[in-house]
Description:
Blueprint: E1 2-3, E2 16-26, E3 32-43, E4 48-52, H1 59-66, E5 74-78, E6 90-93, H2 105-109, H3 111-114, H4 121-133, H5 149-161, E7 167-171, H6 179-196, E8 199-203, H7 207-213, E9 216-221, E10 226-232, E11 235-236, H8 243-247, H9 252-263, H10 272-282
Parallel strand pairs: 4-8, 4-9, 6-7, 7-8
Antiparallel strand pairs: 1-11, 2-3, 2-5, 9-10
Helix pairs in contact: 7-9
Amino acid sequence: xxxxxxxxxxxxxxxxxxxxxxxxxxxxxxxxxxxxxxxxxxxxxxxxxxxxxxxxxxxxxxxxxxxxxxxxxxxxxxxxxxxxxxxxxxxxxxxxxxxxxxxxxxxxxxxxxxxxxxxxxxxxxxxxxxxxxxxxxxxxxxxxxxxxxxxxxxxxxxxxxxxxxxxxxxxxxxxxxxxxxxxxxxxxxxxxxxxxxxxxxxxxxxxxxxxxxxxxxxxxxxxxxxxxxxxxxxxxxxxxxxxxxxxxxxxxxxxxxxxxxxxxxxxxxxxxxxxxxxxxxxxxxxx
Length: 287
Protein backbone atom coordinates (compact mmCIF):
# COMPACT_ATOMS: atom_id res chain seq x y z
CA UNK A 1 0.00 0.00 0.00
CA UNK A 2 1.49 3.32 -1.11
CA UNK A 3 0.94 6.03 1.47
CA UNK A 4 1.43 9.62 0.43
CA UNK A 5 1.45 12.74 2.49
CA UNK A 6 -1.24 15.40 2.32
CA UNK A 7 0.01 18.65 0.82
CA UNK A 8 0.66 21.37 3.37
CA UNK A 9 -1.72 24.24 2.80
CA UNK A 10 0.12 27.50 2.24
CA UNK A 11 -2.86 29.62 3.31
CA UNK A 12 -3.59 31.75 6.38
CA UNK A 13 -6.02 29.07 7.55
CA UNK A 14 -3.43 26.29 7.67
CA UNK A 15 -3.29 24.83 11.21
CA UNK A 16 0.17 26.38 11.62
CA UNK A 17 1.97 29.01 9.62
CA UNK A 18 5.34 30.48 10.54
CA UNK A 19 6.36 33.51 8.47
CA UNK A 20 9.58 35.52 8.60
CA UNK A 21 10.25 34.34 12.16
CA UNK A 22 13.32 35.91 13.77
CA UNK A 23 14.39 35.35 17.36
CA UNK A 24 17.52 35.39 19.49
CA UNK A 25 18.84 36.03 22.97
CA UNK A 26 21.42 38.10 24.82
CA UNK A 27 24.50 36.40 26.27
CA UNK A 28 26.01 37.41 29.64
CA UNK A 29 28.66 39.47 27.86
CA UNK A 30 25.98 41.50 26.10
CA UNK A 31 26.31 40.02 22.61
CA UNK A 32 23.28 38.77 20.66
CA UNK A 33 22.89 35.19 19.42
CA UNK A 34 20.36 34.89 16.61
CA UNK A 35 18.56 31.51 16.64
CA UNK A 36 16.16 32.09 13.72
CA UNK A 37 16.30 34.65 10.95
CA UNK A 38 13.23 34.92 8.72
CA UNK A 39 12.22 31.26 9.11
CA UNK A 40 9.22 30.14 7.03
CA UNK A 41 7.14 26.96 7.00
CA UNK A 42 3.56 25.80 7.37
CA UNK A 43 1.71 22.65 8.42
CA UNK A 44 -1.33 21.41 6.54
CA UNK A 45 -4.60 19.99 7.84
CA UNK A 46 -4.12 16.43 9.07
CA UNK A 47 -0.39 16.53 8.36
CA UNK A 48 2.31 15.04 10.61
CA UNK A 49 5.56 16.98 10.33
CA UNK A 50 8.80 16.07 12.12
CA UNK A 51 11.53 18.60 12.83
CA UNK A 52 15.02 17.17 13.21
CA UNK A 53 18.36 18.85 13.73
CA UNK A 54 21.51 18.71 15.77
CA UNK A 55 21.46 19.75 19.43
CA UNK A 56 21.35 23.52 19.68
CA UNK A 57 19.53 23.99 16.37
CA UNK A 58 16.67 25.71 18.19
CA UNK A 59 14.01 23.01 17.99
CA UNK A 60 12.72 23.42 21.55
CA UNK A 61 12.90 27.21 21.28
CA UNK A 62 10.76 26.97 18.16
CA UNK A 63 8.13 24.99 20.08
CA UNK A 64 8.17 27.54 22.89
CA UNK A 65 7.55 30.27 20.32
CA UNK A 66 4.74 28.36 18.60
CA UNK A 67 3.03 27.53 21.90
CA UNK A 68 3.23 31.13 23.13
CA UNK A 69 5.64 30.47 25.98
CA UNK A 70 8.04 32.87 24.24
CA UNK A 71 7.23 35.96 22.19
CA UNK A 72 9.06 36.18 18.86
CA UNK A 73 11.17 39.26 18.30
CA UNK A 74 9.77 39.60 14.80
CA UNK A 75 7.71 37.65 12.31
CA UNK A 76 4.36 35.92 12.56
CA UNK A 77 3.12 32.63 13.99
CA UNK A 78 -0.53 31.95 13.19
CA UNK A 79 -2.81 29.08 14.14
CA UNK A 80 -5.66 28.42 11.73
CA UNK A 81 -9.26 28.34 12.81
CA UNK A 82 -11.42 25.23 13.10
CA UNK A 83 -13.63 24.20 10.18
CA UNK A 84 -16.63 25.62 12.08
CA UNK A 85 -14.91 29.00 12.39
CA UNK A 86 -13.92 28.59 16.04
CA UNK A 87 -10.40 29.44 17.19
CA UNK A 88 -7.69 26.84 16.77
CA UNK A 89 -6.05 25.37 19.84
CA UNK A 90 -2.51 24.09 20.45
CA UNK A 91 -1.72 21.20 22.82
CA UNK A 92 1.90 20.71 23.88
CA UNK A 93 3.19 17.31 25.07
CA UNK A 94 6.68 17.14 26.57
CA UNK A 95 9.15 14.32 27.17
CA UNK A 96 8.23 14.31 30.86
CA UNK A 97 4.67 13.27 31.61
CA UNK A 98 4.37 15.92 34.38
CA UNK A 99 1.67 13.97 36.20
CA UNK A 100 0.65 15.22 39.63
CA UNK A 101 1.16 12.35 42.13
CA UNK A 102 -1.71 13.43 44.39
CA UNK A 103 -4.25 13.27 41.57
CA UNK A 104 -5.71 10.09 40.12
CA UNK A 105 -5.12 9.06 36.52
CA UNK A 106 -8.54 10.42 35.58
CA UNK A 107 -7.93 13.70 37.40
CA UNK A 108 -4.56 14.09 35.67
CA UNK A 109 -6.17 13.44 32.31
CA UNK A 110 -8.74 16.20 32.96
CA UNK A 111 -6.15 18.78 33.98
CA UNK A 112 -5.86 20.32 30.51
CA UNK A 113 -9.59 21.02 30.39
CA UNK A 114 -9.45 22.58 33.88
CA UNK A 115 -6.98 25.16 32.57
CA UNK A 116 -9.60 26.34 30.07
CA UNK A 117 -12.88 25.97 31.92
CA UNK A 118 -14.85 24.05 34.52
CA UNK A 119 -14.95 20.26 33.99
CA UNK A 120 -18.40 18.97 33.04
CA UNK A 121 -19.88 15.47 33.50
CA UNK A 122 -19.57 14.81 29.76
CA UNK A 123 -15.83 15.63 30.00
CA UNK A 124 -15.42 12.97 32.67
CA UNK A 125 -17.29 10.44 30.55
CA UNK A 126 -15.17 11.27 27.51
CA UNK A 127 -11.96 11.03 29.55
CA UNK A 128 -12.89 7.58 30.85
CA UNK A 129 -13.75 6.50 27.33
CA UNK A 130 -10.40 7.71 25.96
CA UNK A 131 -8.44 6.14 28.80
CA UNK A 132 -10.21 2.84 28.11
CA UNK A 133 -9.28 3.12 24.42
CA UNK A 134 -5.63 3.38 25.46
CA UNK A 135 -5.90 0.38 27.78
CA UNK A 136 -6.08 2.47 30.94
CA UNK A 137 -9.73 2.04 31.88
CA UNK A 138 -8.93 -0.28 34.78
CA UNK A 139 -6.48 2.22 36.33
CA UNK A 140 -8.48 5.42 35.84
CA UNK A 141 -8.97 5.81 39.60
CA UNK A 142 -5.43 4.72 40.53
CA UNK A 143 -2.51 7.06 41.22
CA UNK A 144 0.48 7.67 38.91
CA UNK A 145 3.02 5.84 41.08
CA UNK A 146 1.39 2.53 40.15
CA UNK A 147 1.82 3.04 36.37
CA UNK A 148 4.66 2.10 34.04
CA UNK A 149 6.43 4.76 31.98
CA UNK A 150 4.46 3.88 28.89
CA UNK A 151 1.15 4.04 30.74
CA UNK A 152 2.05 7.44 32.19
CA UNK A 153 2.82 8.75 28.71
CA UNK A 154 -0.54 7.47 27.49
CA UNK A 155 -2.21 9.41 30.28
CA UNK A 156 -0.24 12.48 29.18
CA UNK A 157 -1.38 11.89 25.60
CA UNK A 158 -4.98 11.57 26.78
CA UNK A 159 -4.65 14.86 28.70
CA UNK A 160 -3.27 16.47 25.53
CA UNK A 161 -6.08 15.24 23.29
CA UNK A 162 -8.98 15.94 25.62
CA UNK A 163 -8.66 19.68 24.96
CA UNK A 164 -9.63 19.00 21.30
CA UNK A 165 -6.54 20.60 19.77
CA UNK A 166 -6.24 21.49 16.12
CA UNK A 167 -2.45 21.24 16.44
CA UNK A 168 -0.43 18.92 18.69
CA UNK A 169 3.22 19.70 19.51
CA UNK A 170 5.27 16.69 20.59
CA UNK A 171 8.72 17.46 22.04
CA UNK A 172 10.71 14.19 22.27
CA UNK A 173 7.70 12.55 23.98
CA UNK A 174 8.85 8.92 23.67
CA UNK A 175 12.63 9.16 24.03
CA UNK A 176 12.74 7.80 27.59
CA UNK A 177 10.60 4.75 26.83
CA UNK A 178 11.52 1.22 25.83
CA UNK A 179 11.43 0.41 22.13
CA UNK A 180 8.20 -1.62 22.16
CA UNK A 181 6.31 1.10 24.04
CA UNK A 182 7.66 3.75 21.71
CA UNK A 183 6.32 1.87 18.68
CA UNK A 184 2.92 1.53 20.35
CA UNK A 185 2.73 5.26 21.07
CA UNK A 186 3.88 6.11 17.55
CA UNK A 187 0.90 4.07 16.35
CA UNK A 188 -1.35 6.09 18.66
CA UNK A 189 -0.26 9.33 16.99
CA UNK A 190 -0.62 7.90 13.48
CA UNK A 191 -4.12 6.69 14.42
CA UNK A 192 -4.98 10.09 15.90
CA UNK A 193 -4.40 11.77 12.56
CA UNK A 194 -6.42 9.11 10.75
CA UNK A 195 -9.36 9.36 13.15
CA UNK A 196 -9.60 13.09 13.78
CA UNK A 197 -7.53 14.86 11.14
CA UNK A 198 -5.48 16.58 13.85
CA UNK A 199 -2.22 18.15 12.68
CA UNK A 200 0.95 17.12 14.52
CA UNK A 201 4.43 18.63 14.76
CA UNK A 202 7.06 16.36 16.29
CA UNK A 203 10.55 17.29 17.47
CA UNK A 204 12.79 14.24 17.70
CA UNK A 205 16.42 13.15 17.49
CA UNK A 206 15.32 9.71 16.28
CA UNK A 207 15.50 9.64 12.48
CA UNK A 208 13.59 6.35 12.25
CA UNK A 209 10.79 7.74 14.40
CA UNK A 210 10.59 10.88 12.29
CA UNK A 211 10.31 8.95 9.01
CA UNK A 212 7.93 6.28 10.32
CA UNK A 213 5.44 8.77 11.75
CA UNK A 214 5.61 11.69 9.38
CA UNK A 215 4.33 12.93 6.06
CA UNK A 216 7.20 15.41 5.93
CA UNK A 217 10.54 15.77 7.72
CA UNK A 218 12.03 19.25 8.09
CA UNK A 219 15.77 19.41 8.65
CA UNK A 220 16.95 22.44 10.64
CA UNK A 221 20.60 23.42 10.55
CA UNK A 222 23.00 26.31 10.82
CA UNK A 223 23.02 29.32 13.11
CA UNK A 224 20.81 31.20 12.57
CA UNK A 225 18.80 28.03 11.95
CA UNK A 226 17.35 27.58 8.49
CA UNK A 227 15.51 24.80 6.70
CA UNK A 228 18.29 22.79 5.09
CA UNK A 229 16.00 20.20 3.55
CA UNK A 230 12.41 18.96 3.52
CA UNK A 231 11.78 15.30 2.90
CA UNK A 232 8.33 14.35 1.63
CA UNK A 233 7.77 10.82 2.94
CA UNK A 234 5.89 8.35 0.74
CA UNK A 235 6.12 4.74 1.84
CA UNK A 236 4.90 1.50 0.28
CA UNK A 237 3.57 -0.63 3.13
CA UNK A 238 1.90 -4.02 3.43
CA UNK A 239 -1.48 -3.01 4.77
CA UNK A 240 -2.12 0.19 6.72
CA UNK A 241 0.86 2.32 7.61
CA UNK A 242 1.98 1.93 11.20
CA UNK A 243 5.22 2.16 13.18
CA UNK A 244 6.40 -1.29 12.09
CA UNK A 245 5.17 -1.45 8.49
CA UNK A 246 6.66 2.00 7.81
CA UNK A 247 10.11 0.79 8.90
CA UNK A 248 9.78 -2.21 6.59
CA UNK A 249 8.93 -0.11 3.51
CA UNK A 250 11.48 -0.35 0.67
CA UNK A 251 11.88 3.44 0.57
CA UNK A 252 12.66 3.74 4.30
CA UNK A 253 16.45 3.31 4.11
CA UNK A 254 16.73 5.90 1.35
CA UNK A 255 14.87 8.49 3.42
CA UNK A 256 17.00 7.59 6.44
CA UNK A 257 20.21 8.12 4.47
CA UNK A 258 18.99 11.48 3.17
CA UNK A 259 18.14 12.80 6.64
CA UNK A 260 21.32 11.37 8.17
CA UNK A 261 23.48 12.93 5.48
CA UNK A 262 21.64 16.21 5.94
CA UNK A 263 22.42 16.22 9.65
CA UNK A 264 26.08 15.76 8.73
CA UNK A 265 25.94 18.75 6.40
CA UNK A 266 25.57 16.80 3.15
CA UNK A 267 22.14 17.75 1.86
CA UNK A 268 21.11 15.62 -1.13
CA UNK A 269 20.77 17.64 -4.29
CA UNK A 270 17.30 17.72 -5.79
CA UNK A 271 15.88 18.63 -9.14
CA UNK A 272 14.33 22.11 -9.67
CA UNK A 273 10.74 20.84 -9.44
CA UNK A 274 11.43 19.18 -6.09
CA UNK A 275 13.09 22.33 -4.79
CA UNK A 276 10.16 24.48 -5.89
CA UNK A 277 7.68 22.20 -4.11
CA UNK A 278 9.84 22.23 -0.97
CA UNK A 279 9.95 26.03 -0.96
CA UNK A 280 6.19 26.21 -1.32
CA UNK A 281 5.72 23.86 1.62
CA UNK A 282 8.14 25.93 3.68
CA UNK A 283 5.96 28.99 3.14
CA UNK A 284 8.64 30.83 1.16
CA UNK A 285 6.05 31.88 -1.42
CA UNK A 286 3.93 34.56 0.23
CA UNK A 287 0.57 35.94 -0.70
